[in-house]
Amino acid sequence: MDMDDKDGLRAWLIALRTPGLGPGGLRERLDAAGGDIHVALARLRAHPAALGETARGWLRRPDQDRLAADLAWLAQPGHALLRCTDADFPPQLDNIPQPPAALFVVGDASLLLYPQVAIVGARAASAGGKAHAGAFARALAGAGFAITSGLADGIDGAAHAATLEAGAKTVAVVGTGPDRIYPRKHHELARRIAAHGALVSEFSLGTAARADHFPRRNRIIAGLALGTLVIEAGLRSGSLITARLAAEQGREVFALPGSIHNPLARGCHRLIRDGARLVEHAAEITEVLAPCARSLGGELEARLDGRDGRAEGGLPGGADHPADPDYRRLLGELGHEPATMDDLVQRTGLSAAALSSMLLMLELDARIERLPGNCYQLLPGLHAPG
Amino acid sequence: MDMDDKDGLRAWLIALRTPGLGPGGLRERLDAAGGDIHVALARLRAHPAALGETARGWLRRPDQDRLAADLAWLAQPGHALLRCTDADFPPQLDNIPQPPAALFVVGDASLLLYPQVAIVGARAASAGGKAHAGAFARALAGAGFAITSGLADGIDGAAHAATLEAGAKTVAVVGTGPDRIYPRKHHELARRIAAHGALVSEFSLGTAARADHFPRRNRIIAGLALGTLVIEAGLRSGSLITARLAAEQGREVFALPGSIHNPLARGCHRLIRDGARLVEHAAEITEVLAPCARSLGGELEARLDGRDGRAEGGLPGGADHPADPDYRRLLGELGHEPATMDDLVQRTGLSAAALSSMLLMLELDARIERLPGNCYQLLPGLHAPG
Lengths: 386, 386
Description:
2 copies of one chain form a homodimer. Chain A is an alpha/beta fold.
């Protein structure tokens, strides 16, 4: 980092930490200053009338230790501040209501330019809901999308974890400072996301978990992604906020239906009544979103096209390499006659547990059909690989 | 039956049995004849050119034994032919595409003037689907609607049976002659429907089950009802035809969502994608249909209003009398704190089986909420009866 960068970063950090300024206030002043943070900050100091006394105090005498700590954090490898004036700031965030002025990123900041699908849902998700989150994440990642979520317990964590396990890209947008992990149990998951994906926050270092920060976090999840998939959600779930924000931002909203006796299906059902697309298969999402990604052009388009060839004939979840023998063996043994799990164990030599997860993925990818009595067959029109 | 009636009936039976004439052709000729069947039949005999040789043969020399058998059947108590020229022909059928010219009815023909909800679905329904059919039938019957269905195995049969068990009104529209029962296993059910409801067919006596008659039957089910609820349906289910016809006729279509792993939820999901209303509670259906019933005015309105007061504060399924002690006891023991099934067995002294069915009905009626872990509580805003 050269001196000029450091001065600019320092000015940004002062502005971002100015109490009551907020991303809207900062963006407004930057616009007026032609995008120059030094000019914006100087004018802010010269005319702080609109701000409160705390802000004026901070602008007069910012906490040097805190700024030094911020700069030290940013100097670490893999840490970055993505400013709205930077060329690689995700353009899809510029058009949402109340766009963030800057994002702290741990990991691969270029991921924010990937076409993304958000997968969100209940913290108290059911085992089935978490399995769905994982299977949709694998299938969508296999189709070339990065999977974006909120690092929360339940659906969010399942989506991140499954994407990482498939060797694919995931983005976690958190409601705390980028140096804080909430919930604690996701410490190890956050470490893996930082190492193989990106962990993103608009909140300054040291910001603890606060209830009112999560809806703010949700607008960024919804804004980064081309579409948001809600897997399971109660009627009071924060995921409904994310979905509403996505719809308001003109993004696609998808929701999984469920039994009328599952309270965690009610939020999804409400979304569907309100216009969200009901989905049963990951392919329904890729069909809708692939043209959106292309229409955005530029970086997003290139990313998706780069992966598209792989995705179209491919299998979900990193198992799309012709060398993946297990999927080929399973598809080879499935026909248009229903086969039971026992049949498939016998024919493939794979364990029931392994088959169960592979079958779920193939089903979500609309390659096979599950019939009553736990039987499986290829969907009409599809053929087993030769 | 006086002689005049018998002559008229005889002319109708000849016209209805004329091969290739069909309900459209008969209605056209009746319209041209000012509604007089004798004039219409005389003109048909005088100008049979548009019809085939079989029809001309029949019109020249109708089978007297068959007509005598038809008249003998119609002379039996509870048997009737409802002609489109009759004042009590259901007016809602006049505006559907290809309306029937007449209906054979066994039982209470006035039921066709009741506000009706159709409940249809898969023949190979799951146990859960049949339970839903029964519970929605009871709740909707309790709200003042007659329940109309197709007497088929599975969802249809469950809806009819539950309505009868609740002492409410049900209409079965069959795809055979009114003297034939299909499937055979529904012989006893059909007998009870004839005794306490109405069994309806547009097909002449002796007509056996034919695949192409069931879609024709479906247009009458959809046309009689203000709305059609599909409980479970595969992607190739005839229920989707009924639902499509209902939508084309400007009627409301409702569908129950389910797990993405249930092949019998797929048809419902397709309907919802195509614009059907996703429903979780019977109350969502009554809210939509009660104003429709009123806007139809006349007989339908009077029927619904006559039952409305009872329904509004009432309990579903015939258990709405303040004297019904079991429901009052159960509601009295339910609070806004979750209670387990064990709690409720202990508090009410009712069996788990009885409670289970009562709780499902209360849930469908949006009076209670089922929470994870099989717990139940009153929905917010509702109070236990004093």
